[in-house]
Design a protein that fits this description.
This protein is of the alpha/beta class. It contains 23 helices and 25 strands. 32% of the residues lie in helices and 24% in strands. It is globular and about 65 Å long. The two termini are 40 Å apart.
């Protein structure tokens, strides 16, 4: 992805040109518009956005997948991408006028004065370079110290265990959470005054997430400005001073965090808050509406098509920002209207679990580290998975959750123990013996971008799971792929796009659609909703619940999000250092945990109300 210039010329309609940034502002941009050329012409992903970040302040941008958050972040560091047309009324970064920046100017300040943490750690880290070399790159680029002690200190700051060993490993040898922490260490290496963090804690378990949030909080108190992009409103509440809510490329509400989260005035913000699953609200959540394609070209409010309060004027008028309190503004004609979320309550399972589909008995797996010593990743794990049942698997990054998933899928041979599928051997047999039943187990990966062929379109990615093209007529095949996309809330207009042209949340939904294509009996879900905003997350969790009840689908649900696990699971297993330290019915484990580690995980859960109170 190459650097992009920024054009400052005519201000987009509706904008107001502002004066140069005050001395304490690290970033000011007015009228930011980012457009991409497509087959049907130019598409504006970001439209007339005004942002300001001061020293020792955190501004959070929240919104659903595809709303323009990540495009905004990349445009602010000169990495909007090939074919991007970036325009702004004014643009100041770290005290410099960035309006006329060339690629060399961006390289001069990027890493040293403005840092970026991106969402996809695996695809952002060089697979041919060791983690230590990745971290020292910004230090070397700006002529700073690159010693092993400096690397060790940076990895310590982000709570990477055994930093000397991890520094010598390659990204593929680390778990998703460890890769994310290495990426954060690299972004902080040169001590930039302004940090743009795009979903920095998405791949982290709650205990490490708490440490990273504490680290970011310390940086903010020492004068670092932070632009945080996140769909996790509990994380936002804990760190943000101000919040900007984004939908269809526009800022539709902004203001102090306490006001936006405590008294939201735009219907979209209210729906985001109502859709949050939490560990203490099992089964009660917004009945999320199916998302429409963002960026409607009509003259009215772009959210009107989804809004329960919309009136005729909403479809014909594009409201300007209206001040509803001190520093609190919203783009809505009906900010004074009372709003009640559409809530449904699940009373729990209505049918008993069926036959045993999977039996995992005493499996263990060890790997050799850089020092050639064997290290146990999984130690004697046992559990069963029944038809129409969801078993949650939780634990911190590196606890062995993903290794268990690979053993269950038959991608790794356990050193000891067995896996049986419906009573028949699954582990320890040749792949040819598993092939006829392979479609019965499907996988939703944690890093969908790395799991897709970048040359394939969405249609081909999903269609590949339907089998050879000759099994279906072209029309039936296209209809089935469209139906699968619709099930996960994606529009058929994405069929011709490639993975790199999708947002992180859209890629995650494509991965789920592909997993559902062969009509499996068992889904192995490794962080399946970690990249999704809360409204789409609600829809996917409801979809998985519906499939379980309607089709008898069994699910092994791996996640570090305890609120999500609590919402979907019947039983839960808690892993630490490769072992299951606690297991049982989800209500018992969550309300009366017996192991100290389980209590620690539950205590570390961020809570929006606690964040606002603090």
């Amino acid at each position: 992805m190459r650097d992009r210039d920024v054009t400052v010329g005519e201000r987009p309609p509706g904008g107001v040109r502002q004066s140069a940034a005050p001395r304490d502002d690290l970033l000011t941009v007015t009228g930011l518009t980012v457009a991409f050329r497509g087959p049907a012409g130019s598409v504006e992903a970001v439209r007339g956005v005004d942002l300001r970040v001061a020293a020792d302040e955190c501004l959070a941008i929240v919104g659903e997948s595809g709303s323009g958050k990540s495009v905004t972040a990349r445009a602010l560091v000169g990495l909007a991408g090939p074919g991007a047309d970036v325009r702004a009324g004014s643009f100041t970064v770290a005290g410099e006028d960035a309006a006329g920046f060339r690629p060399a100017d961006w390289r001069r300040i990027r890493g040293r004065r403005i840092g970026l943490v991106v969402q996809d750690a695996l695809t952002s880290l060089d697979p041919l370079r060791r983690v230590g070399a990745e971290i020292t790159e910004p230090l070397r680029s700006h002529g700073l110290e690159t010693s092993a002690a400096r690397v060790r200190a940076l990895l310590d700051d982000v709570h990477v265990p055994e930093p000397d060993i991890r520094a010598r490993q390659y990204p593929f040898q680390l778990s998703g959470g460890l890769r994310q922490r290495a990426l954060i260490a690299s972004a902080l290496a040169a001590e930039p005054g302004l940090l743009i963090a795009d979903e920095p804690t998405t791949a982290l378990d709650v205990t490490v997430q708490a440490h990273i949030l504490d680290l970011l909080g310390d940086l903010k108190r020492k004068g670092t400005g932070i632009l945080l992009i996140s769909h996790d409103l509990a994380v936002v509440a804990r760190l943000a001073d101000r919040i900007a809510v984004m939908y269809a490329g526009r800022i539709i509400e902004e203001g102090p965090a306490a006001q936006v989260l405590g008294a939201p005035r735009h219907p979209y913000t209210r729906e985001l808050l109502a859709a949050v699953p939490a560990a203490h609200t099992r089964g009660t959540r917004l009945a999320a509406a199916r998302p429409e394609a963002p960026g409607e070209d009509g003259p009215g409010c772009s959210y009107a098509v989804r809004c329960s309060l919309a009136i005729d004027r909403c479809r014909t008028e594009d409201p300007p920002p209206v001040t509803v309190g001190g520093g609190h503004r919203a783009r809505c004609l009906r900010t004074d209207q009372e709003w009640r979320p559409r809530v449904r309550t699940d009373t729990g399972r209505t049918n008993a679990p069926g036959e045993v589909l999977l039996e995992i008995d005493g499996v263990g797996k060890s790997f050799r580290g850089p020092d050639r010593e064997l290290r146990a990743a999984v130690r004697s794990v046992s559990f069963t998975l029944n038809r129409a049942e969801t078993v949650g698997l939780v634990g911190e990054s590196g606890s062995g959750k993903s290794t268990v998933a690979q053993i269950v899928l038959g991608l790794l041979r356990p050193d000891h123990g067995t896996v049986r599928l419906q009573g028949r051997p699954w582990s320890g047999v040749r792949e040819s013996a598993r092939r006829r039943d392979r479609h019965r187990l499907q996988f939703v990966p944690q890093d969908p971008l790395s799991a897709f062929d970048p040359r394939y379109t969405v249609e081909r990615v999903v269609g590949e799971a339907l089998g050879a093209p000759g099994r279906w007529s072209a029309r039936r095949r296209r209809d089935r792929i469209t139906e699968l996309l619709d099930m996960v809330g994606l529009d058929a207009g994405l069929l011709r796009r490639r993975p790199a042209q999708l947002s992180g949340g859209q890629r995650q939904r494509v991965a789920i659609a592909r997993a559902l294509a062969p009509q499996p009996d068992v889904l192995i879900c490794d962080e399946p909703v970690s990249a999704l905003d809360v409204s789409i997350q609600a829809q996917i969790l409801d979809l998985l619940t519906d499939l379980r009840e309607r089709m008898g689908l069994a699910c092994l649900f791996i996640s570090h999000d305890l609120g999500v696990v609590h919402h979907v699971s019947d039983r839960v297993l808690v892993m630490r250092d490769g072992e299951v330290v606690e297991h049982g019915p989800v209500e018992r484990v969550y309300t009366a945990p017996e192991h100290p580690y389980t209590r620690e995980l539950l205590a570390a859960l961020p809570n929006p109300e606690e964040g606002l109170a603090g």
